[in-house]
Design a protein that fits this description.
Elements lengths: L7 H10 L4 E5 H14 L7 E5 L6 H8 L4 E4 L2 H9 L7 E4 L5 H10 L2 E4 L3 H10 L9 E5 L24 H13 L4 E5 L9 H22 L3 E5 L17 H16 L8 E4 L3 H4 L3 E12 L3 E5 L8 H5 L5 E2 L9 E7 L8 E9 L6 E4 L20 E5 L5 E5 L4 H5 L5
Parallel strand pairs: 1-16, 2-3, 2-9, 3-4, 4-5, 5-6, 6-7, 7-8, 8-9, 11-13
Antiparallel strand pairs: 1-10, 10-11, 10-15, 12-15, 13-14, 16-17
Helix pairs in contact: 5-6, 8-9
The structure holds pyridoxal-5'-phosphate (PLP).
Length: about 425
């Protein structure tokens, strides 16, 4: 079973102030992880991680990551505003959107963000958004490549040729040529073909693919590339027995590819960018809930005060999340449970047929690896309210970084 950064008595203390369910993030572990990642890629002088804001859109977490120079990967108006609020502006923002509203292109432009075009038609949309006289000469411009059948599939994103993101090879050449003709001089190349990937080779292969493409684009179009963004999608070991991605191995492989492909072709000093979300905060966030009912029918059910609106990965992807019962970690008495929430949807289950310590009403149930794509994917279906987010500081103190929603919040948009 996982070791938590808090025990039952600490939870009693926290829950007396902020009732369950809540999400809690471990600041110390997030910092240590960020430091490790930065160190792993230190050979690349311009290396930068742009934290995928959608994974955990909380300014306190973004600020914490900013300590390590992490920028923001944004794909919506709200995410752009969040980045701006924490002081990530200009080229600390990578704006990687798709099906982009013009107002968002305008906002990204005003902030001086690196604009990453998802489609060849978005070039015209961008011109429409920022006006025909916009000056591209100092702007860092990027295109998102979809390698199609050149790259094998991945469980969450699927096969690249069935994915809605990015441009074909032909469109890519076309788009850079158009940007160059419009006066753009500074370029980057991007792709994002993985999600929750644990194999270092998959990420290294992606880098190789992009590096080779950069060499071709340079030669054919006579443009230089400042960066290559290999995307996010680095996985975390949700299941027992899985191993965390070996970042040193990824780094070594990418470095070798850099030397063999880019440097060999005379493209030196190309910066390596990443835009991970999951592996940055995922393992360091916990959904803390309590058992409110034990039900014994055709199966044994543990009903929690949290539901899939607090964490929808299990219901949405059938995702596995470790569950820990503080105070009963070493209990020899176990039963097999379906661990449920209260939504009127039968897929509202955090775990199915899971062996857990024998549960009673009032027990804490901690769902692990909820720190990315957890609270962020919350919703209000069935009138469920979004929970609070708390930050466990290195000194053991706890700070609320988002309050829980109230019924007044829920009703605030209604015309009564
Ligand atoms: C979701 C997303 C990310 C982050 O993905 P993780 O799996 O959380 O690392 C990065 N870039 C883009 C464009 C995304 O859509």
């Amino acid at each position: 079973m996982r070791t938590l950064p808090f025990d039952k008595s600490k939870l009693d203390e926290i829950a007396a102030k902020w009732p369950t369910p809540f999400h809690i993030y471990d600041a110390k572990a997030i910092r240590e992880n960020a430091k490790r990642m930065k160190k792993a890629f230190s050979w690349n002088k311009g290396w930068r991680e742009f934290f995928a804001v959608k994974a955990a859109p909380n300014p306190h977490l973004m600020t914490l990551l900013k300590e390590f120079g992490f920028g923001s990967d944004c794909s919506s108006m709200a995410e752009l505003v969040l980045a701006e609020k924490v002081g990530n502006t200009g080229e600390a923002i990578m704006f990687t959107s798709n099906d982009t509203p013009l107002a968002e292109f305008r906002k990204a432009w005003e902030l001086g963000a690196i604009i990453n075009l998802d489609d060849i038609t978005h070039w015209d949309a961008l011109l429409e958004a920022v006006g025909p006289d916009a000056d591209f000469s100092g702007r860092l411009m990027c295109c998102r490549y979809n390698p199609g059948p050149l790259k094998g599939g991945n469980a969450i994103i699927g096969k690249p040729e069935e994915a809605k993101y990015g441009m074909t090879r032909e469109q890519l050449f076309d788009c850079y040529a158009k940007m160059k003709a419009a006066g753009a001089r500074r370029f980057g190349l991007h792709t994002m073909v993985a999600s929750n990937e644990l194999d270092p080779e998959y990420i290294i292969d992606t880098a190789r693919l992009l590096f080779s493409l950069v060499v071709e684009l340079r030669e054919k179009l006579g443009i230089e590339f400042e960066f290559v963004n290999i995307g996010g999608g680095i996985g975390i070991p949700y299941k027992p027995g899985q191993e965390a991605m070996d970042l040193e191995k990824v780094s070594k492989g990418v470095r070798q590819a850099n030397d063999e492909i880019l440097a060999a072709a005379g493209a030196r000093g190309v910066k390596l960018f990443m835009e991970c979300g999951r592996c940055i905060t995922g393992p360091y966030g916990y959904l803390v809930s309590r058992v409110i009912h034990i039900k014994n029918t055709y199966r044994l059910y543990a009903g929690l005060d949290a539901c899939m609106s607090n964490l929808m990965r299990p219901a949405m992807y059938g995702a596995y999340h470790e569950i820990v019962v503080p105070g009963k970690e070493n209990s020899a008495e176990t039963s097999v449970y379906d661990v449920t929430g209260s939504l009127c949807e039968n897929n509202d289950k955090f775990a199915i047929q899971r062996v857990l310590p024998v549960l009673e009403r009032g027990d804490y149930v901690v769902i692990c690896d909820a720190g990315a794509h957890g609270h962020a994917m919350g919703f209000q279906y069935n009138g469920k309210l979004r929970s609070a987010e708390l930050l466990l500081e290195a000194d053991g103190s706890v700070r609320q970084i988002r309050r829980a929603e109230t019924l007044d919040d829920y009703f605030s948009t209604l015309e009564f």
